[in-house]
Write a structure and sequence with these properties.
single chain, 654 residues, alpha+beta, Aldehyde Ferredoxin Oxidoreductase,  A, domain 1, Aldehyde Ferredoxin Oxidoreductase Protein, subunit A, domain 2, six-stranded mixed β-sheet, 35% helix
Length: 654
Amino acid sequence: MAESFGWVGKVLRVDLSTGATSVEDTQSYLPFIGGRGFGLKVIAEEAPAAGAFDAENRLIVAAGPLSGTPAPAAGRCTLVAVSPETYPREMVSHSSMGGYFGAELKYAGFDAVILQGRSPTPVYLWISDGQAELRSAEALWGLDTFETQKMIQRQTGPETEIACIGPAGENRVRTAIVIHGTGHACGHSGFGAVMGDKRLKAIACCGHGGVRVADPKAYAEAVGYARSLLGTGAHWPLPTKPFWVHHQDPHDLSRQAYRSGYTHQRQPWIVTEGYATVAKNTACYGCPVACYNYLYMPKAGAFGGGDHNCTMGVGAARDETKWQAKQLCDRLGINAYIPQIATKWLTWLREQGRMTEKEMGLPISAPDSWPYAQELLRQIAYRQGIGAIFGEGMGRAAEQLGLLHELFTEEAFGYGGHGMLYHWGPRDWGMAMDLVWALENRDPNRHDRPGFSAPGYGWDPRGGILWEDVAPPIARALLGSEHAISPAGSRGPYHPAQARYAALIHKRSCLKESLPVCDWQFPIYISPLVERDPPYCGDLTVESRLYSAATGDELSMEELDEAGERVWTLQRLITMHQWGTHDLRATHDVLPERFFLHAGSVEAPIQRDEWEQALDDYCQELGWERASGAPTAAALKRLGLEDYAHLMPDREPA
């Protein structure tokens, strides 16, 4: 095996049906960078036609070349599989999580794990210093995620890092999550259900190895440079940075909560009503931002960690219910967005007289109450009562409730497309995000784009930093045109630079989910440094500096962008195979009709003629056929994907 830099050099394969394990060389996966790219290569070659709950489906857990190194905001790993959550088709998808698991997997001896088959009995995978074995999880089956991790650590040691599922995953709830620690989650795509179907309760790893980099001096310089530019990212500040001292108290530690105003400074009722206080902030592996906060809930007498803004959203509750509900979601292994949308739908059904509280079997008349939250989450996790319907995810639940028309046309239903809740979604963030949503297979969750545009996230008029003064020069410098972006709430006329930006977002998203680095910090569009030219400008070449120094594979940013495009185009080919059509533009690349009917929070809905022009421009940018959205032979040759052309279905008869 050749000497590896940035890599351990080994990939673990586990056949859950037989219990057999084997080891492969990482080398053959390197054209796809790592993380998401690794996983897509496996799906494309081994299981492009598998259903989410077929034993043939692969679940790939992959780190990347920056994992386990000092690179800032690189404490993530990415999961890839055919998703049970996507709608109306089960499609290949991905999800990533922060924390320490990705680094520990490499320290334990492997760059990635490929899981296939289905175990006859519950098991968990134990990985330690280059060795792997399946152990019985009979005693763990039925436990919540926190209890599961505690029990495994009692068996293996307190330094073990664990990714596991709760009862929702065991019961194949299509939106079930994978949890690491007390709040790091693979929250989208339903991979908890894939693990549950495979009877895999957890993956646990502990190791004492390390990761060598090719050029330690250059890598240290690249890391230092990257750290100097971080601090604003998409949502939150490092309070020591001058960009933010105008309005952020350095002692107000809740940088996670800052993104939605849940800080002592910005919402004093958090203190005066005494329902939550920040205990401390901590960070994912190697990250200087430390946005992950632990909160103490005095009335509940409990601690909770993580992004409590993304909770089940029991109304506007300002008490411990909201925070307890988030913890219960994590314990049961439920995507916290699903109870949130379930509450909206159930309230609507009751108000419309289409379903009574008795028929629901839930106290929906008191949606802010803890009894309601507990019962709803229990029903979803165990697929009981109406929870069995919501356990099918948004699209399939709407089918069963007779709400498909409303799902696609009504604002109140919160649908973004592809089976996912609207989140930083189309229409409200400009044409670039419209395209990103339509072309992805899941909620693309691109925090970088909204963070670049939104006043109050990247710019603060109270500090004298105005979007219209700062953002356009940065867009010209980094994206080639100020027309690539627009402020939140204002669409403006369409410009081809927006389609070019959407293509860049897809390339960079695949890249950052393959390195992998944090979605809330990369790409670095903005920095806290006024002395940059233009002021506060970031640097879109940081990934190249880090990757090249770590691996010794000197790639320019243009070459790395091409690697991201290779990953993105491979997903396109798999998606064509799964839809069974050459024409994804007419079938897959669509948005819910509501975005063309209603203005939402902007001045006008998406204009159909502009939308069609944007799709044309996007396809031209990537070398895809305009009429069908299929990659051309020339594009596949340029990206070295000729061997995957067979995934494209034959053209439909004229």
